[in-house]
Specification:
The protein has 223 residues and is an all-beta fold. The protein has a single domain (3-212), classed as Sandwich (Jelly Rolls), CATH 2.60.120. Helices cover 0% and strands 43% of the residues. The relative contact order is 0.28.
Length: 223
């Protein structure tokens, strides 16, 4: 597996969703591939050669095929749908961890399928809510894309820190991934403990795009 990575974190406004459910469209002569995630996206079965654009997932009717997971190092954790905060719509995901043992990573993940042994570029963008702005006592904001189901903190890339804004802040990252023979691509995002305290954040309005890698691999960028 080859994975290259580029990450950004900013406060720019993410496009608001529009249109209806997307439909799969045939591969064109250039062999272009694009996948934008919604709750109705198919994550199992044959590889999807191409899709039309679709709204981002905002967890209004469920988890949208995203599954909560953790590395098991925090003594208590949870990922639940909540109406307490929302970047778009009414719901978001509330991510809680007891970080008093100074360890633990919790996230949501989703498996996508592309053509086997192809090199694709995976873009993920999502919003995270913090209760305050501070440079002290922050946790890590993390994400991953690759051919293996992420299970530990080492499987993730740090995109930045929590508490960079009071309220919502957008984070995004871009990877180049060479799929294995099964054509699986895993995408995940969440938080990782970096300060000994209990804390919760909210995640919302996530978009994932998968398209062919054209040209040289992207350089690895670290925050």
């Amino acid at each position: 597996m080859r994975v290259s990575f580029l990450a950004t974190a900013d406060k720019s406004t993410f496009p608001r969703p529009s249109g209806s459910e997307f439909e799969e469209v045939p591969m064109n002569a250039l062999g272009r591939l694009a996948l934008v995630v919604t709750a109705a996206a198919v994550v199992a079965g044959p590889a999807v050669p191409a899709t039309a654009a679709a709204p981002a997932e905002s967890f209004e009717t469920g988890f949208g095929s995203w599954q909560p997971d953790t590395d098991g190092l925090a003594p208590a954790w949870s990922v639940t749908r909540s109406t307490e905060q929302a970047r778009h719509g009414v719901y978001s995901l509330r991510v809680y961890m007891d970080g008093r043992q100074d360890d633990g990573t919790t996230w949501v993940e989703r498996r996508f399928k592309v053509a086997p042994n192809t090199t694709v570029r995976v873009t993920v963008a999502f919003h995270l809510w913090s209760s305050r702005q501070s440079d002290v006592g922050t946790w890590f904001v993390v994400a991953a894309a690759g051919t293996r189901d992420p299970e530990t903190e080492r499987d993730f890339t740090r995109l930045g820190s929590t508490e960079q804004a009071a309220g919502w802040k957008q984070y995004s990252a871009l990877w180049t991934v060479t799929a294995d023979a099964a054509g699986a691509v895993w995408v995940a995002f969440g938080t990782s403990v970096a300060w000994e305290t209990e804390r919760h954040h909210y995640l919302d309005y996530v978009s994932v795009t998968i398209q062919p890698a054209i040209g040289p691999a992207l350089p690895v960028a670290r925050p």
